[in-house]
Amino acid sequence: MKKFLFALVFIVLCSAPSYAENEELFLYIWSEYLPDEIVENFTQETGIKVHISNYDSNEAMLTKIKLAGQGYDLIVPSSDYVGLMRRENLLLPLDKSKLSNFTNLSSAFVDQPFDPDNTFSVPYMWGSTSIIVNTGTLGSAAIESIADLWKPEMDGRLILPNDMRDVFSVALKLLGYSVNETDPAHLEEAYQKLKILFPRVRAFDSDSPKQALLSDEVSVGVVWNGEAYIANTENPNIQYIYPPEGFSLWMDSLCIPKGAKNLDEAHAFLNYLLRPDVAAALSTEMGYSTPNAKAMDLIPEEIRTNPIVYPTEAEIQHGEFQDYLGEALKMYNDYWVKLKTN
Amino acid sequence: MMQFLKSVYAWLIYLFLYLPLAVMAFYSFNASKYSLTWKGFTLKWYGKLLTNTNLFDAALRSLTIAILSATIACIIGTLTAFMLHQYRFRGRKAILGSLFVMMMSPDIVIGISLLVLFLAAGFTLGFWTLLMGHVTLCVPFVAATVYSRFEGFDISVIEAAKDLGANEYQVFSRIILPMAIPGFVAGWLLSFTLSLDDVIISFFTTGPTYEVLPLRIYSMVRLGIKPDVNALSVVMIVITVVAVFLSRRLLKEKR
Q: Which residues form the signal peptide (chain A) (predicted)?
């Protein structure tokens, strides 16, 4: 028995991770959101070892950062969480003098309301949440605007994201308001519109709406462009539309949380990701859109000219990023509960 | 007729339990990346898995934690069960009750409270805090399993041993432990499983240096689960089946 215990203690001691690196970086990110080769190449170039750990939602990441308060050097919050964490003083300002490649970014994606002047965040990947339609089952002219989603013949064929902000964004854009609307009267209007739509929705799915679309269970709805891209590759009749009323844009940005220890390494990594060749490799590998203007020429033509991944400048003008709502969030929540329970 | 119905019922239960696993195994050989339509047989996801060091490392770390925490929890849990069964002392009822409270309390509560405790104690989050978290999760289950095994004991055997001059330690090691082995093994397997697929407690108690498999898979939801995860799951199931088979063989030979 004693021997056994000693052996066990020995095993435990041997299996504990060792800390021998002098230069390291702790990155906290969604799984599979950063290709291994890109990280390995960075380590080869700089000698900085990158430790990656993952979270599954912005909420979870925020909880961990708030409670643990240290141990992470870079996080990747979505735009509204950049706004929230900035206001809650959970982020450290960036040292732009160490980010020589920052100027490679397209002007359409910097200096956004959720982080004016990019004091705290560096755009990483972006995309849109807009309308998808199966022209094979509905015909090519069935849906041309957000208003068309309210047509009676869409009853039982609709799919919407299982996400409060995304759904409200659609109704608010329909009425000509901002996706970050905080005026109670305007929200009430959006709620009334959604009340008509909700009984007609067949599925709420944010994880994999492409499945329902590809199996013809639904024919029209609102999805984010990553899903649209895959669905369209599998079935060219499934098309993605940027409606004239406008749509919501999403962006994940890299930020340095309070309590980060390896600031130089974090900035080195940020600057590395802003390099045109790296940004292009990221976009190509992952199929997401890069905010890096200089990288565009290096991206294969079929991706660069695909409107689902890269809408035109004019279309991007109709898009709007979600920001943190503050007090108004409670109103949204109340309406959302009402919609979901009736 | 009755016999026939019984066997149909049994088969249905097995089908219900194992069909999802079979479907997953089936799709791990599917050439199509996204859709559920069959597009031909391929082994490329298994090849991809070998190159996906991130996923592989996380799986190894998960197995390490699961084996260690199951073993440690088994030792603590068995001793706890022995104490609760063998001795009468003040606070015994409270300890027994607290075991069940631990089993009933939601993971999120255990996870957050452990995190707060570790931070208050000034620990760095990582391997050790994760191990402590998982041991805490598993101990009540082992203790309850082994305790219920003890309850079914024939006390007179122990008394006879004492009459024949056995001391406390001998009674424990020669009589109680051998009788408790099945409960011990069941507790170990249960702990191993609990530790291997726990997401919430792991999320709160681990740090940036020690990422485990469930967290890695769980946080893929944003970008979609890739087929190499199916391949990995199949590999893990095969390992599990072999392990269970071996442990049964070993136990059989001992008797």
A: 1-20
